[in-house]
């Protein structure tokens, strides 16, 4: 981390100073690149941090931009219209803790973001970097949360957007993206087809920033802000355990990166922490690799209601395994039935309604406690990364009114057993 | 305002010192009452504020509880589990301003609340007061946002809840309340039937707090926090113009009350401000009364897609007329087509997706500018009180993908006219 390269760059991306290959370590100047020219490995942002002080962060904006000194964005990032995501609630979850058998539990509730998922964080960083890198159009392939976040961020900034979705997407998800009035294109094909098309278009259009393709190194850094916020909201210290859902795996690795940076910069004491990963059994390639003791992840064909986590060939899978093993964490997976029960448990105990990905996190935490992998006495944080309003279909056959009655007090009393 | 009564009270509700009749001025000690025993007028909370300083507020919680010294809640209110609503974004809306022809415009975006509407504010205050007043069950009749907020707040606090809804309610709205696992009771009848049933049950059950019925005086005070936040977020000053949607009308009157209190307490300079009201034409009894120059509001039968505003006999209608006339504001109403265009305009220009009530506010602001009632050179705030994810049905026949194409770059180019 924080390696400086000597070559001057022409792009002002704050403390970001180079792109570094995560496989071979080769460094290049900051550029709109995402793959290493030497080995085709994924590129990652390398920094040269100046002095970053708690007081400066605390005096900053009430959004992820309070951490701009730790992100690949210019110092005036917040002077451009943006969705100002982040600084979502860290909720003390005593009732959920009691239900799970944990002593001290927090929920990082990212449903409070502008489009109600953590994707607002990564898209905001991608947009800020894309502006500096000379892009003019914000784009993505997506099946849901990312489409919402990209279209909204572009609208707010006054940018054109191109969002590619499978034409089979549910109407509700189409509406929540179409409303921002960018170029929403439905593609007759599955998500793999849409993804390939995005890569092709990114190569053809120099000024189109596909947030999760050609500006992915910058985009992914946005997830570090979850770690920064957790530490600041705990009073500038690290939690002992954190449970993170795994889709591509980028979020989990960036939460780890964020915690490490805070320690290295003396913003927190570098106390030990354990990182746990959560997957749905119907798409659990990283969990399977972890349990088998493998270093590589075998792709799978997803089949789960947790569609926002349904990435069968997770790009960051090997790096997730590294983080989890290095920090003495674990990875577990849960059935779709357990996902629904996880959603309901969080709602019932804490009044927080999460999408299926959050159900995966809660249900996995439960399983990790039951199998003795999560220490019940260690302070734990669960990442709840998206909103239940986006995945109503997952619960619609499981819940409903307790009773339907005629309009009389007697009927209500009878229904309630009074 | 801020009248003290001499009688000691047994309830610790912070600066709240009495209930005062809004019609005859008769005062009673703090109690679980909502109607004046003398004249049946509505009761309102009266305060005796101590010294309230900006610095103390700024050092307080990142929620409405930073204003606990101005609300009918005990000083330790935040030590009890609650949803911690409020401190939502005040968004500088330059692109919407340009579209509307306003020089300086802000959007108060209450979609960021825990259950994504301003109802989290009023329910949180109702729950805090209800706890002090000895209630044990949180309840409400509702058709949407209030049901969500009540069920979530009760779950978080570990309280029982009883939520009454018309059995004809859309499935999505049933799910988003049922997930919190309180006693959700579907009633065969319309909203008026449900409301009457709530009043009957409130009379029978001494320990059931129907937030919008028998603890309404406390509940309604929660809307003052919108005014406090706007002023604080503007750097401790009042805006010159504010546009507020009207359902019962309580929110509009409480925004005015909040602004006045801030001036009287020297927390802001008491500069003049104008309050504007927004209704959907399909339920516009207050707008009609305003335009006709009447002091009373004739009830109507609602017929509008803006269902969260569809109160045909608004309890605070006359008080709304008072506020609007006193502050030299105005009231206007807009058609359902304009509501949809208002939703789309806000999404397109600012990346904020609001429910129909927000569409009413935006469309009304547009009409008020066009008719010369809103001063285009005066700083203006629009209240966006709920989330578009809750009223997808309102836009589903109006928007969709720009094109559906085969998975090829050429097809995308053709669809985009490139």
User: How are the strands of the largest sheet of chain A arranged?
Assistant: 4-5-13-10-11-12
| Sheet with the most strands, sense and barrel status of chain A | 6 strands, mixed
CATH architectural group of the domain at 89-116 and 220-394 in chain A = 3-Layer(aba) Sandwich
Structural class of chain A: alpha/beta
Average pLDDT figure of chain A: 95
Q: Which pair has the most extensive contact?
A: A-B, 82 and 82 residues
What is the number of helices of chain A?
14
Helix content of chain A: 25-40%
**Distance between the terminal alpha carbons of chain A, to the nearest Å?**
63 Å
Radius of gyration of chain A: 21 Å
CATH topology of the domain at 89-116 and 220-394 in chain A: Rossmann fold
Strand content of chain A: 15-25%
Low-pLDDT runs of 5+ residues of chain A are 1-8
- H and E string of chain A: EEEHEHEHEHEHEHEHHEHEHHEHHEEH
Q: What characteristic shape of chain A results from the CA principal axes?
A: globular
Q: Class of the domain at 89-116 and 220-394 in chain A in CATH?
A: Alpha Beta
- Using DSSP, what is the number of strands of chain A? 14
Give the key terms.
homodimer, 418 residues, alpha/beta, Rossmann fold, six-stranded mixed β-sheet, four-stranded parallel β-sheet, 14 helices, disordered N terminus
Nutshell version of this structure?
The structure is a homodimer of 418-residue chains. The first copy, chain A, is α/β, with parallel strands linked by helices.
């Amino acid at each position: 981390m924080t390696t400086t390269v000597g070559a001057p760059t022409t792009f002002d991306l704050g403390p970001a100073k180079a792109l570094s290959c995560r496989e071979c370590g080769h460094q290049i100047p900051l550029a709109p690149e995402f793959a290493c020219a030497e080995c085709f490995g994924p590129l990652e942002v390398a920094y040269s941090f100046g002095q970053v002080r708690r007081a400066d962060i605390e005096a900053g904006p009430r959004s992820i931009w309070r951490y701009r000194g730790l992100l690949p964005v210019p110092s005036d990032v917040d002077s451009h219209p943006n969705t100002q995501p982040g600084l979502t609630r860290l909720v003390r979850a005593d009732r959920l803790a009691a239900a799970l058998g944990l002593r001290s539990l927090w929920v990082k509730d990212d449903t409070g973001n502008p489009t109600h998922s953590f994707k607002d964080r990564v898209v905001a960083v991608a947009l800020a970097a894309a502006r500096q890198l000379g892009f003019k159009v914000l784009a993505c392939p997506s099946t849901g949360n990312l489409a919402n976040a990209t279209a909204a961020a572009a609208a707010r900034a006054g940018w054109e957007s191109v969002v590619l979705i499978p034409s089979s997407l549910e109407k509700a998800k189409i509406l929540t993206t179409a409303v921002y009035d960018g170029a929403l294109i439905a593609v007759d094909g599955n998500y793999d087809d849409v993804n390939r098309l995005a890569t092709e278009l990114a190569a053809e259009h120099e000024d189109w920033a596909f947030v999760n393709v050609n500006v992915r190194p910058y985009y992914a850094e946005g997830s570090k802000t979850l770690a920064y916020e957790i530490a600041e909201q705990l009073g500038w210290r690290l939690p002992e355990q954190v449970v993170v859902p795994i889709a591509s795996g980028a979020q989990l690795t960036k939460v780890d990166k964020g915690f490490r940076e805070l320690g290295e910069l003396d913003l927190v004491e570098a106390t030990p922490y354990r990182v746990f990963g959560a997957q749905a059994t119907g798409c659990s390639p990283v969990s399977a690799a972890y349990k088998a003791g493998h270093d590589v992840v075998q792709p799978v064909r997803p089949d789960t209601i947790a569609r926002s986590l349904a990435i069968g060939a997770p790009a960051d899978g090997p790096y997730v395994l590294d983080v989890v093993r290095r920090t003495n964490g674990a990875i577990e997976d849960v059935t779709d039935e357990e996902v629904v029960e996880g959603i309901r448990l969080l709602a019932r105990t804490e009044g927080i309604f999460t999408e299926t990905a959050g159900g995966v996190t809660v249900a996995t935490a439960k399983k990790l406690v039951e199998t003795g992998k999560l220490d019940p006495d260690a302070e734990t944080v669960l990442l709840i990364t998206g909103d239940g309003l986006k995945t109503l279909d997952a619960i619609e056959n499981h819940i409903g009114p307790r009773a339907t009655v005629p309009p009389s007090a007697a009927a209500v009393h009878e229904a309630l057993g009074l």
